[in-house]
Design brief:
303 residues, globular, two-stranded antiparallel sheet, 15 helices, mainly alpha, Farnesyl Diphosphate Synthase
Length: 303
């Protein structure tokens, strides 16, 4: 099928995720009004929703779209929304003055600008805690392994630890290996969780789950490589965030280590390796084709 068909599917999937996110946040009672507004500002204010779609389309590719997963697709949708909450929490905290100190995210003022720094910290905390509550609720018989996987991928040994290494590396001389370590933890880990989580929810065996988790990690490296390239080549209005921040902050990127052309080749090489992993691990069919379309789009993009 054509990429136009998959793009229509992607747009429809994003709309469904947006609706479910709104429903899930609205249904949570007992949250102070200002805190809930801040959480909604960051969670519902745009975004490409690539991580939850990746989880859902991995579920489809493993279960072959026949609703034969460990949990239903409706439950997988809710789990994917919890993953988007984890992603959004990381963005809220990354943008704080003590971190990357950014004023623009998803085309809107960052949470600490729209509200205040203390409220932004609490909004990130709230989204993280709510995400794990929802993963436990919608994970069915694999809720324990699912929560454990995401806790490992986003926690101090994963995404949070990657942010620490990234902060420690600002302005320092770095190697390509250190950049890979940072990007693998910060971006690769969450995309690995998306694919590994989708596999778990679809009832994949441990071997296939591990293979897809590793493919997601490679996609994360390629996605971050593309993001770094866009940071130096695209304007803020297209990115939805401040352009040129990486260079200004002395961030550890492949561009800084290798230059633009080598960074482009590395991004493509890692991205193609991820697609090969998917094609070798999953049965042929439209679900695989659609998943590969999404995977390629994540590192071959202009915004």
């Amino acid at each position: 099928m054509s990429s136009e068909k998959w793009q229509v599917d992607l747009d429809r999937e994003r709309s469904g995720i947006d609706r479910r996110l709104q429903e899930m946040l609205r249904s949570e009672s007992g949250i102070p009004r200002r805190l809930k507004s801040a959480m909604g500002h960051s969670l519902l204010g745009g975004g490409k929703r690539l991580r939850p779609v990746l989880l859902l389309w991995t579920w489809d590719a493993v279960s072959q779209g026949k609703n034969r997963g460990t949990v239903s697709r409706t439950e997988a949708l809710s789990a994917s929304c919890a993953l988007e909450m984890l992603h959004t929490y990381s963005l809220v905290h990354d943008d704080l003055p003590a971190m990357d100190d950014d004023v623009l995210r998803r085309g809107n003022p960052t949470c600490h600008v729209a509200f205040d720094e203390a409220t932004a910290i609490l909004a990130g905390d709230g989204l993280q805690a709510l995400a794990f509550k929802l993963l436990a609720r919608h994970g069915g018989s694999v809720a324990g392994p699912l929560v454990e996987m995401l806790g490992q991928d986003v926690g101090p040994a994963g995404m949070v630890g990657g942010q620490q290494i990234d902060l420690d590396s600002e302005g320092m001389e770095v190697t390509a290996a250190r950049v890979r370590r940072i990007q693998g933890k910060k971006t690769g880990a969450l995309l690995a969780a998306a694919m590994g989580g989708g596999a778990l929810l679809a009832g994949a065996d441990p071997g296939l789950t591990a293979t897809l988790h590793a493919a997601g990690f490679k996609l994360g490296l390629a996605f971050q490589g593309a993001d770094d390239l866009l940071d130096v080549s695209a304007p803020s209005v297209r990115l939805g965030k401040s352009a040129g921040k990486d260079e200004a902050s002395g961030k550890a990127t492949w561009i800084r280590v290798e230059g633009m052309e080598k960074a482009k080749r590395r991004t493509r090489r890692v991205g193609l390796a991820a697609l090969r992993s998917l094609e070798e691990a999953l049965p042929d069919g439209p679900e695989l084709d659609r998943l590969c379309f999404l995977g390629k789009m994540m590192w071959n993009r202009d915004r």
